[in-house]
């Protein structure tokens, strides 16, 4: 369109540039701060030219917070959540879109409701469940009198117990138990033309065959988008890993940031803290930059 | 090769019945076209044969075996869909060969059969492409190939040409015809395009409102339409219809402004009937010619080879198709001549054809 | 919306849903039910029986000044950070949508902040906003003691708002930009042909068409401010000073896991759940409207 709006264009550029500064400034400051020595970083104002201690600080942060194994834990958790989500949501969406069975609407709503309550608001009881993941089933057996029955009949006392604290399953499974991905797939499956299903049926394919040969390959884009979003979301989890990993062996990188908060008293080691922050924020940033398209797409699709 | 027998087939959804007891016998190797306006139940009937829709009543038999309860894959039918329904993530070869893969045919044999089909359809150079990279006509051919490779007993076509442009449609039409002549497989073809229907069909089934209106060869359907619906639906421009009332010695038309002398043939006086004349059966003559109807020209539509002249006949719209080089001005008067053998009569009440009339005057003075 | 074509073997169909159903039963419905049960009983930490107390837990929470303080803090936090994050994002998205040179670049960079974990950016902001080092310390050099999030509740609140808003500008930007780009180009062109300028077009065409997105983001931002704030609060202020930033989720966590008051924490969870459910229902009504626009 031919439009001459020089003043407005100038203002646009200025504001966008300010927005850009605002968005990148924290990254830049973190990077610069992590390159200073203890004295420089505590100077007011902090020198804006990078110092020379970058690698030393990174190394110190790495060892202080034991980031190697923690990053690996983060990676395992994030990958597990992303993969679990991508698979389980696809299965569920296939079930509620491509079949008509009694109670389907009920199941749909059961899953739908999980969108409403984030893990954060039900942490306390979820924690209790994870401490013994079979406790719900034990309770059901107890209440229905089944455990009494089993004890009478077989003489075995039923006591189900499987603790998931400090385990990858404990980290991952509760994070998968939401409907986010299911609805992403559902929306997509609904746009797959019926004729394609019919053609597959004419070609002799049954439900499973259709799911694997046609539907899943067609969903590749959605899988990539969902996988990206879920990886980031899981990587950035804080409260849940904090609770569930009572010993250090399963702690994640994000929860370990707490170890880097400078102590009160003495000169605060901000350079080390910022070096650690940089390490922890880098993987998700790389994912966002590399997977930009999927990230944006997934974000918009999962919230619909 | 198989025959199809449809006995009183019905289909109803929760509240609506869309197919009302259809009876149809399709001989082995026959090419049958089901023609009708959208929503007439023609696609539903086809999908009932395919096994994609449950049959609510009656039965469908292929080669004498009732298939009501059989799944699509067990019926031996192949289908070409309106939008082709090609699997977008598979190559042409994979698309064509998918049914064989599902059936567990070994890879070597599969490749061989894909090659053979591709050769027939001239698709060999496209086998590695994805459907996205194909033109409409090529996609159409892949869809045909997918149906052919299974060597099915019955071919089903669900408006397969409606997404193509006019030129390709004509070309594909003749290709389908040729293919049928070669494979000689029983084919059922659904369309709403009457030209397509007329050109392809051995036998034509005209459907409306979930019922079969008429079954016959294209020539029969054109020359002796069984109902008013068939008369107006088949043929372009559509047949002219003049409403009339039976009188003692003839027919009063156009609210009494014209009369047609003819034998009453046992119909009670006052019965409402409709007279139909095909536009191409009307001859254009000079106004005032003896025995000609006088009408005023509204609009002339040039078709190149001929033209359609829309006239006003005592307030009723009427059309004439002529190949003569006449170009009457809008507003001018023309004379129309109609031969008695070109007149069709239908009951206004039931829409059924009335063959009881004999027009008594050779060139009736209307 | 429903599929016309489905598969007939529905027993297989149910099997596909079983993994998900098991997961949500174990980790969603059971804990949620448990929370309701605990909120109505007096729960001994780590087992040891529980006593039915009816609504006593709710009564004691709702009569506690600490809890009301936490609600107020949460609302202040939600209100200001949502307003900030949405306003800035709206401006940036509207300007990026003008597609001047460089807009592709802004489209890429402006969404980065949303990828960062809340605790990580919280630590970064803790440094940037620290009173004795970093950047705001300059202010303290000129007027000593004017800025100290460690001592002043308002400063602490401002700090967590800054950190949260920074992250959610990126988030809102993505949605606003998508909404702007979903407006058919022909609509803008038609308005231009009608003689409407850039600013006029924004108010007459674009803004009305994205109002559904605004409502949608409003609800999402508020709900997120309840949950995603935990990491920020924990790293930056630990709820202090003097409970000034003790937001609801943080309080649930500290009461439940530090104070071992399961019943109180459960009752607070229930109240928060209700709040979020009300907001979500609100949101679905607007999603309906969103569909109507298209």
TrEMBL record, chain A:
<comment type="function">
    <text>Part of the ABC transporter complex UgpBAEC involved in sn-glycerol-3-phosphate (G3P) import. Probably responsible for the translocation of the substrate across the membrane.</text>
</comment>
<dbReference type="InterPro" id="IPR035906">
    <property type="entry name" value="MetI-like_sf"/>
</dbReference>
<feature type="transmembrane region" description="Helical">
    <location>
        <begin position="75"/>
        <end position="99"/>
    </location>
</feature>
<keyword id="KW-0813">Transport</keyword>
<keyword id="KW-1133">Transmembrane helix</keyword>
<feature type="transmembrane region" description="Helical">
    <location>
        <begin position="7"/>
        <end position="33"/>
    </location>
</feature>
<feature type="transmembrane region" description="Helical">
    <location>
        <begin position="106"/>
        <end position="128"/>
    </location>
</feature>
<comment type="subunit">
    <text>The complex is composed of two ATP-binding proteins (UgpC), two transmembrane proteins (UgpA and UgpE) and a solute-binding protein (UgpB).</text>
</comment>
<dbReference type="InterPro" id="IPR000515">
    <property type="entry name" value="MetI-like"/>
</dbReference>
<dbReference type="Pfam" id="PF00528">
    <property type="entry name" value="BPD_transp_1"/>
</dbReference>
<protein>
    <recommendedName>
        <fullName>sn-glycerol-3-phosphate transport system permease protein UgpE</fullName>
    </recommendedName>
</protein>
<keyword id="KW-1003">Cell membrane</keyword>
<feature type="transmembrane region" description="Helical">
    <location>
        <begin position="168"/>
        <end position="189"/>
    </location>
</feature>
<comment type="similarity">
    <text>Belongs to the binding-protein-dependent transport system permease family.</text>
</comment>
<keyword id="KW-0812">Transmembrane</keyword>
From TrEMBL, chain B:
<dbReference type="InterPro" id="IPR003439">
    <property type="entry name" value="ABC_transporter-like_ATP-bd"/>
</dbReference>
<dbReference type="InterPro" id="IPR047641">
    <property type="entry name" value="ABC_transpr_MalK/UgpC-like"/>
</dbReference>
<keyword id="KW-0547">Nucleotide-binding</keyword>
<dbReference type="InterPro" id="IPR017871">
    <property type="entry name" value="ABC_transporter-like_CS"/>
</dbReference>
<dbReference type="Pfam" id="PF08402">
    <property type="entry name" value="TOBE_2"/>
</dbReference>
<dbReference type="InterPro" id="IPR003593">
    <property type="entry name" value="AAA+_ATPase"/>
</dbReference>
<dbReference type="InterPro" id="IPR015855">
    <property type="entry name" value="ABC_transpr_MalK-like"/>
</dbReference>
<dbReference type="InterPro" id="IPR008995">
    <property type="entry name" value="Mo/tungstate-bd_C_term_dom"/>
</dbReference>
<dbReference type="InterPro" id="IPR027417">
    <property type="entry name" value="P-loop_NTPase"/>
</dbReference>
<feature type="domain" description="ABC transporter">
    <location>
        <begin position="4"/>
        <end position="234"/>
    </location>
</feature>
<keyword id="KW-0813">Transport</keyword>
<keyword id="KW-0067">ATP-binding</keyword>
<dbReference type="InterPro" id="IPR013611">
    <property type="entry name" value="Transp-assoc_OB_typ2"/>
</dbReference>
<dbReference type="InterPro" id="IPR012340">
    <property type="entry name" value="NA-bd_OB-fold"/>
</dbReference>
<dbReference type="Pfam" id="PF00005">
    <property type="entry name" value="ABC_tran"/>
</dbReference>
UniProtKB/TrEMBL annotation, chain C:
<comment type="similarity">
    <text>Belongs to the binding-protein-dependent transport system permease family.</text>
</comment>
<keyword id="KW-0997">Cell inner membrane</keyword>
<keyword id="KW-1133">Transmembrane helix</keyword>
<feature type="transmembrane region" description="Helical">
    <location>
        <begin position="201"/>
        <end position="220"/>
    </location>
</feature>
<keyword id="KW-1003">Cell membrane</keyword>
<dbReference type="InterPro" id="IPR035906">
    <property type="entry name" value="MetI-like_sf"/>
</dbReference>
<feature type="transmembrane region" description="Helical">
    <location>
        <begin position="265"/>
        <end position="287"/>
    </location>
</feature>
<dbReference type="InterPro" id="IPR050809">
    <property type="entry name" value="UgpAE/MalFG_permease"/>
</dbReference>
<dbReference type="Pfam" id="PF00528">
    <property type="entry name" value="BPD_transp_1"/>
</dbReference>
<comment type="subunit">
    <text>The complex is composed of two ATP-binding proteins (UgpC), two transmembrane proteins (UgpA and UgpE) and a solute-binding protein (UgpB).</text>
</comment>
<keyword id="KW-0472">Membrane</keyword>
<feature type="transmembrane region" description="Helical">
    <location>
        <begin position="156"/>
        <end position="180"/>
    </location>
</feature>
<protein>
    <recommendedName>
        <fullName>sn-glycerol-3-phosphate transport system permease protein UgpA</fullName>
    </recommendedName>
</protein>
<dbReference type="InterPro" id="IPR000515">
    <property type="entry name" value="MetI-like"/>
</dbReference>
<comment type="function">
    <text>Part of the ABC transporter complex UgpBAEC involved in sn-glycerol-3-phosphate (G3P) import. Probably responsible for the translocation of the substrate across the membrane.</text>
</comment>
